[in-house]
């Protein structure tokens, strides 16, 4: 069943709960644990912005079951050792929900701490399959898609639009690039496809013109790219400089603000896979959240929307179970179906979101925007 039908109805329920509660509010502590410094800080900031807005809305409606939500932020810098230390600190403070972590390595390190302490952990961004394949406990959940969903998503498009065409597979030599190449090749083979050309390059290379020249000489119809945002932008610019008019389909590592500056006028030739943006769906409540974020000078994004939705999920599960205790809240999350700003959310037995989807994005007006509706 669905525990609430709309955000407005849920807020009204919270108000009633607040009126029936004791006059002095207690506190329910929750936290966002992510990178708030270093290269991934913009992503952590987006998740935090969404969670903060949700906490403000719930508290303005009387709190959760009459109790005030208090939000903390914990900067793990995407470092596993620091993430473990912060997990111990947060559980010691009595934090009942952790939204995090951001990077898979940090989530993997911290998850056993939360599981042992009996804390709900919901990650928005960590895509490592191992996190749910070897689920640390019944309180661990993931909202975003797994990283092994990207390759089949790309291969499906290749089969639909480029069957019988010359496909180039280009990746950097990082661990991400090598894993991306292996997964994409396997997914292509499952569709009866194979790359006409495979090339690797050094991440951060200053000049990608020689690589672009090689690609042009191979008369490719499409390039599949596994590289980070700056390199993806530089390659797009190098291809354009050689007048190679070929589409580039990139993995989610290319989804960074630095892409625009690196690509210059070549931004439109690259499409990037990333988690579905609920605000791109007509009539989605995420549109209102995105509008409010822009008005407040914040950056709306799928991460921000999911940050908001994660607080909603915890609140709805606590409301449905009539408790803040770990076991009933975890059971409610596992068995329930919830309408959130990120759409209807329910979880598979392993803790993954059922039907977590991907979309294609293209750079437009200074940021990546969906170039399709969710598939």
TrEMBL record:
It comes from the Bacteria. Residues 27-354 form the Leucine-binding protein domain. Keywords: Amino-acid transport, Signal, Transport. InterPro entries: Leu-bd (IPR028081), Leu_Ile_Val-bd (IPR000709), Peripla_BP_I (IPR028082). One of its GO terms (biological process) is amino acid transport. Residues 1-26 form the signal peptide. Belongs to the leucine-binding protein family. This is Leucine-specific-binding protein.
């Amino acid at each position: 069943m669905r525990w609430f039908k709309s955000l407005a109805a849920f807020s009204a329920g919270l108000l009633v709960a607040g009126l029936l509660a004791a006059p002095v509010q207690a506190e329910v502590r929750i936290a966002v644990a992510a990178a708030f410094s270093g290269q991934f800080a913009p992503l952590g900031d987006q998740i935090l912005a969404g969670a903060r807005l949700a906490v403000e809305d719930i508290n303005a409606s009387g709190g959760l079951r009459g109790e005030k939500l208090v939000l903390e932020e914990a900067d793990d810098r995407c470092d596993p050792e620091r993430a473990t230390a912060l997990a111990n600190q947060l559980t010691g403070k009595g934090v009942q929900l952790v939204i995090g972590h951001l990077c898979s390595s940090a989530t993997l390190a911290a998850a056993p701490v939360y599981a042992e302490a009996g804390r709900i952990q919901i990650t928005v961004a960590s895509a490592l399959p191992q996190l749910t394949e070897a689920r640390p406990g019944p309180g661990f959940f993931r909202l975003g898609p797994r990283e092994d969903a990207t390759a089949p998503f790309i291969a499906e498009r290749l089969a639909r639009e480029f069957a019988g065409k010359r496909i180039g597979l280009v990746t950097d030599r990082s661990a991400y690039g090598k894993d991306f190449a292996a997964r994409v090749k396997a997914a292509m083979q499952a569709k009866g496809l194979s790359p006409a050309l495979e090339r690797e390059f050094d991440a951060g290379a200053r000049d990608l013109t020689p690589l672009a020249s090689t690609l042009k000489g191979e008369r490719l119809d499409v390039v599949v790219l596994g590289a980070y945002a700056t390199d993806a932008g530089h390659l797009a610019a190098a291809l354009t400089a050689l007048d190679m008019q070929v589409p580039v389909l990139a993995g989610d590592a290319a989804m960074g603000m630095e892409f625009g500056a690196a690509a210059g006028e070549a931004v439109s030739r690259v499409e990037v896979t990333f988690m579905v943006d609920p605000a791109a769906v007509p009539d989605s409540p995420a549109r209102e959240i995105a509008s409010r974020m822009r008005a407040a000078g914040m950056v709306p994004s799928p991460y921000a929307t999911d940050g908001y939705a994660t607080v909603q999920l915890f609140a709805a599960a606590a409301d449905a179970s009539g408790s803040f205790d770990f076991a009933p809240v975890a059971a409610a999350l596992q068995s329930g179906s919830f309408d959130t700003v990120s759409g209807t959310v329910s979880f598979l037995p392993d803790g993954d979101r059922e039907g977590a989807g991907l979309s294609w994005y293209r750079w437009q007006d200074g940021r990546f925007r969906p170039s399709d509706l969710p598939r």
